[in-house]
Write a structure and sequence with these properties.
Elements: H1 4-26, H2 33-54, H3 64-76, H4 99-105, H5 112-121, E1 125-127, E2 133-135, H6 147-168, H7 192-215, H8 221-226
Antiparallel strand pairs: 1-2
């Protein structure tokens, strides 16, 4: 069930997304007010067609941060590792080591029942011998336009624009956030599959390294809850892209 707070947050994110889009468009002096109104009308029409084709999944939100943190602790806490440093197969419920105990560790025991289903559905864990579970996939792959993916898309666009605007307003010698892109306009079609494999491997390695660095510096969950004024959201988003050239 959505609360008034969650609704306000979603509305704020949508407002920030639209602000980011209009900020980028407004930087083009050739776009008139009438032209902007025309773009908005066309964009709304195109968006309706896309949404109808995608059939968004409106089920319960998946808390990607909690699921990722649970797996992170499982893979790095001695009590959850065997003598070779591999994650143990553990039961869903009961005292540590268990999945329920992991949700308790991150102060989200209230999410345990749904979180267990989400971990299984997303293939982050699989059931093995004697009804126990083990981590399976290193990444969370969501194959539909679910609410959390809409939220992530909104935040990604907002953050990209914010990074660019922050970097372009820095002093000449100021420390800038990383914002790089590389592409060629004429990659042969026969190389597309190889490009997908290569970028997944390279991007995955980078994300895993950055994730380890970030997770190791988060500090105790209790401190995070009471010290919000001295904490910020920080991260790195990596994606590859393929566009068909107009002929």
């Amino acid at each position: 069930m959505k609360t008034a707070t969650s609704t306000r947050l979603e509305q704020k994110q949508i407002q920030e997304l639209l602000t980011a889009v209009f900020t980028v468009c407004s930087l083009d002096a050739s776009i008139t007010k009438e032209g902007m109104d025309g773009f908005v009308k066309l964009a709304r029409t195109a968006a309706k067609r896309r949404i109808k084709a995608l059939r968004p999944n409106r089920k319960v939100m998946v808390d990607l941060d909690v699921l990722g943190h649970v797996i992170y602790i499982w893979q790095r806490t001695p009590a959850y590792l065997d003598d070779d440093g591999h994650p143990l197969a553990i039961p869903a419920r009961g005292p540590a080591p268990s999945i329920q105990a992991l949700f308790q560790d991150v102060k989200r025991e209230d999410y345990f029942q749904q979180g267990l289903r989400h971990l299984t559905r997303l293939r982050r864990i699989i059931k093995v011998r004697r009804g126990r579970y083990q981590p399976h996939s290193e990444v969370t792959i969501i194959d539909g336009l679910t609410p959390e993916m809409v939220n992530l898309l909104t935040l990604t666009i907002n953050r990209l624009v914010s990074t660019v605007l922050t970097n372009t307003s820095q002093r000449p010698m100021g420390l800038r956030l990383v914002e790089r892109v590389t592409f060629v306009p004429d990659l042969p079609l026969r190389q597309v599959k190889a490009f997908k494999v290569f970028t997944r491997e390279q991007g995955g390695g980078l994300i895993n390294t950055v994730n380890d660095w970030l997770e190791s510096r988060r500090g105790p969950r209790k401190a995070r809850a009471v010290d919000t004024a001295r904490r910020v959201t920080a991260g790195l988003h990596v994606f590859s892209f393929i566009e068909r050239n107009d002929t």
